[in-house]
Amino acid sequence: MAETLTFQPADDHFAERVWESFNRQGIMHFLGARLVHVAPGECDIELPFKPELTQQHGFFHGGAIGAIADSAAGYAGYTLAPADSGVLTIEYKLNIVAPGDGEKLIARGRVIKPGRSVSVTEARVIAIKNGREKLCAICLQSLAVRQGLPEFLG
Protein backbone atom coordinates (compact mmCIF):
# COMPACT_ATOMS: atom_id res chain seq x y z
CA MET A 1 0.00 0.00 0.00
CA ALA A 2 1.17 3.50 -0.69
CA GLU A 3 2.57 5.41 2.23
CA THR A 4 -0.09 7.13 4.28
CA LEU A 5 -0.57 10.58 2.82
CA THR A 6 -2.75 13.41 4.03
CA PHE A 7 -4.93 14.98 1.37
CA GLN A 8 -7.13 18.05 1.46
CA PRO A 9 -10.33 17.52 -0.56
CA ALA A 10 -11.28 20.21 -3.08
CA ASP A 11 -14.93 19.89 -2.02
CA ASP A 12 -16.15 19.90 1.59
CA HIS A 13 -19.03 17.63 0.54
CA PHE A 14 -16.81 14.95 -1.04
CA ALA A 15 -18.16 12.14 1.15
CA GLU A 16 -21.78 12.86 0.22
CA ARG A 17 -20.84 12.89 -3.49
CA VAL A 18 -19.09 9.53 -3.15
CA TRP A 19 -22.03 7.94 -1.28
CA GLU A 20 -24.54 9.30 -3.82
CA SER A 21 -22.46 8.07 -6.76
CA PHE A 22 -21.87 4.65 -5.19
CA ASN A 23 -25.61 4.25 -4.60
CA ARG A 24 -26.18 4.69 -8.36
CA GLN A 25 -23.77 1.86 -9.29
CA GLY A 26 -25.83 -1.07 -10.49
CA ILE A 27 -22.88 -3.48 -10.50
CA MET A 28 -22.07 -2.86 -6.83
CA HIS A 29 -25.72 -3.46 -5.85
CA PHE A 30 -25.86 -6.55 -8.06
CA LEU A 31 -22.74 -8.01 -6.42
CA GLY A 32 -23.90 -7.09 -2.91
CA ALA A 33 -20.94 -4.75 -2.27
CA ARG A 34 -21.12 -2.08 0.43
CA LEU A 35 -19.26 1.18 0.85
CA VAL A 36 -17.79 1.04 4.38
CA HIS A 37 -15.22 3.86 4.57
CA VAL A 38 -14.77 7.23 2.87
CA ALA A 39 -12.06 9.78 3.77
CA PRO A 40 -9.91 12.19 1.73
CA GLY A 41 -7.95 9.99 -0.68
CA GLU A 42 -9.47 6.77 0.72
CA CYS A 43 -12.39 4.46 0.03
CA ASP A 44 -13.10 0.94 1.27
CA ILE A 45 -15.65 -1.43 -0.24
CA GLU A 46 -16.71 -4.69 1.36
CA LEU A 47 -18.07 -7.71 -0.52
CA PRO A 48 -19.68 -10.54 1.47
CA PHE A 49 -19.29 -14.08 0.14
CA LYS A 50 -22.12 -15.68 -1.78
CA PRO A 51 -21.88 -18.70 -4.08
CA GLU A 52 -22.94 -16.64 -7.12
CA LEU A 53 -19.63 -14.72 -6.90
CA THR A 54 -17.37 -17.77 -7.12
CA GLN A 55 -15.34 -19.50 -9.78
CA GLN A 56 -15.14 -23.26 -10.27
CA HIS A 57 -12.98 -23.89 -7.16
CA GLY A 58 -15.30 -21.99 -4.82
CA PHE A 59 -13.11 -18.87 -4.46
CA PHE A 60 -14.29 -15.35 -5.25
CA HIS A 61 -14.12 -14.90 -9.03
CA GLY A 62 -11.44 -12.56 -10.39
CA GLY A 63 -14.16 -10.44 -12.00
CA ALA A 64 -15.73 -9.73 -8.61
CA ILE A 65 -12.29 -8.98 -7.13
CA GLY A 66 -11.50 -6.61 -10.00
CA ALA A 67 -14.87 -4.88 -9.79
CA ILE A 68 -14.50 -3.88 -6.14
CA ALA A 69 -10.81 -2.98 -6.59
CA ASP A 70 -11.64 -0.71 -9.55
CA SER A 71 -14.48 0.99 -7.66
CA ALA A 72 -12.56 1.43 -4.39
CA ALA A 73 -9.55 2.95 -6.18
CA GLY A 74 -11.80 5.13 -8.35
CA TYR A 75 -13.81 6.45 -5.45
CA ALA A 76 -10.61 7.15 -3.51
CA GLY A 77 -9.63 9.43 -6.40
CA TYR A 78 -13.13 10.92 -6.57
CA THR A 79 -12.84 12.12 -2.95
CA LEU A 80 -10.21 14.63 -4.11
CA ALA A 81 -11.94 15.79 -7.31
CA PRO A 82 -13.61 19.21 -7.49
CA ALA A 83 -17.38 19.31 -6.92
CA ASP A 84 -18.12 19.87 -10.62
CA SER A 85 -16.01 16.90 -11.71
CA GLY A 86 -16.49 13.30 -12.64
CA VAL A 87 -13.97 10.47 -12.75
CA LEU A 88 -13.60 7.50 -15.04
CA THR A 89 -11.10 4.64 -15.06
CA ILE A 90 -8.57 4.94 -17.88
CA GLU A 91 -6.76 1.73 -17.05
CA TYR A 92 -6.18 -0.66 -14.20
CA LYS A 93 -3.90 -3.61 -13.67
CA LEU A 94 -4.92 -6.29 -11.24
CA ASN A 95 -2.52 -8.82 -9.75
CA ILE A 96 -4.28 -11.61 -7.89
CA VAL A 97 -1.66 -12.78 -5.41
CA ALA A 98 -3.74 -15.35 -3.49
CA PRO A 99 -7.15 -16.99 -3.93
CA GLY A 100 -10.15 -14.94 -2.85
CA ASP A 101 -10.93 -17.38 -0.07
CA GLY A 102 -13.03 -16.13 2.82
CA GLU A 103 -16.30 -14.89 4.22
CA LYS A 104 -15.78 -11.47 2.64
CA LEU A 105 -13.40 -9.28 0.70
CA ILE A 106 -12.43 -5.70 1.51
CA ALA A 107 -11.00 -3.47 -1.21
CA ARG A 108 -9.02 -0.60 0.32
CA GLY A 109 -8.62 2.13 -2.28
CA ARG A 110 -6.02 4.87 -1.80
CA VAL A 111 -4.74 7.79 -3.84
CA ILE A 112 -1.08 7.59 -4.79
CA LYS A 113 -0.88 10.85 -6.79
CA PRO A 114 -3.82 13.19 -7.32
CA GLY A 115 -3.96 15.23 -10.51
CA ARG A 116 -6.07 17.83 -12.29
CA SER A 117 -6.73 15.59 -15.30
CA VAL A 118 -5.27 12.19 -14.33
CA SER A 119 -4.86 10.68 -10.87
CA VAL A 120 -3.03 7.50 -9.93
CA THR A 121 -4.72 5.28 -7.37
CA GLU A 122 -4.42 1.78 -5.99
CA ALA A 123 -6.48 -0.79 -4.14
CA ARG A 124 -5.46 -3.73 -2.05
CA VAL A 125 -8.07 -6.45 -1.78
CA ILE A 126 -8.04 -8.40 1.45
CA ALA A 127 -9.80 -11.74 1.99
CA ILE A 128 -11.18 -12.21 5.51
CA LYS A 129 -11.43 -15.82 6.68
CA ASN A 130 -12.04 -16.87 10.28
CA GLY A 131 -11.21 -13.33 11.41
CA ARG A 132 -7.82 -13.31 9.68
CA GLU A 133 -6.83 -10.99 6.85
CA LYS A 134 -4.89 -12.18 3.81
CA LEU A 135 -3.82 -10.05 0.85
CA CYS A 136 -5.67 -11.33 -2.19
CA ALA A 137 -5.03 -8.76 -4.95
CA ILE A 138 -3.29 -5.49 -5.78
CA CYS A 139 -4.72 -3.00 -8.26
CA LEU A 140 -2.95 -0.01 -9.82
CA GLN A 141 -5.23 2.46 -11.60
CA SER A 142 -5.07 5.56 -13.81
CA LEU A 143 -8.14 7.71 -13.35
CA ALA A 144 -9.41 10.49 -15.64
CA VAL A 145 -10.68 13.58 -13.83
CA ARG A 146 -13.02 15.69 -15.97
CA GLN A 147 -13.92 19.10 -14.54
CA GLY A 148 -17.20 20.63 -15.60
CA LEU A 149 -18.80 17.24 -16.23
CA PRO A 150 -20.05 15.81 -12.94
CA GLU A 151 -20.22 12.04 -13.23
CA PHE A 152 -19.52 12.38 -16.98
CA LEU A 153 -23.16 13.23 -17.64
CA GLY A 154 -23.18 15.41 -20.69
Summarize the structure.
The chain has helices spanning 14-23, 26-31, 62-78, and strands spanning 34-39, 42-48, 85-96, 104-113, 118-129, 132-147. By secondary structure, it is of the alpha+beta class.
Q: How does the SSE layout of this entry go?
A:
Layout: H1 14-23, H2 26-31, E1 34-39, E2 42-48, H3 62-78, E3 85-96, E4 104-113, E5 118-129, E6 132-147
Antiparallel strand pairs: 1-2, 2-4, 3-6, 4-5, 5-6
Detailed description of the structure:
The chain has 154 residues and is of the alpha+beta class. It has one domain (14-152): Thiol Ester Dehydrase, Chain A. Helix content is 21%, strand content 41%. The chain has three helices and six strands, in the order H-H-E-E-H-E-E-E-E. The chain has helices at 14-23, 26-31, 62-78, and strands at residues 34-39, 42-48, 85-96, 104-113, 118-129, 132-147. A six-stranded antiparallel beta sheet has the order 1-2-4-5-6-3. A hairpin with a 4-residue loop joins strand 4 and strand 5 (118-129). The model has no long low-confidence stretch (mean pLDDT 94).
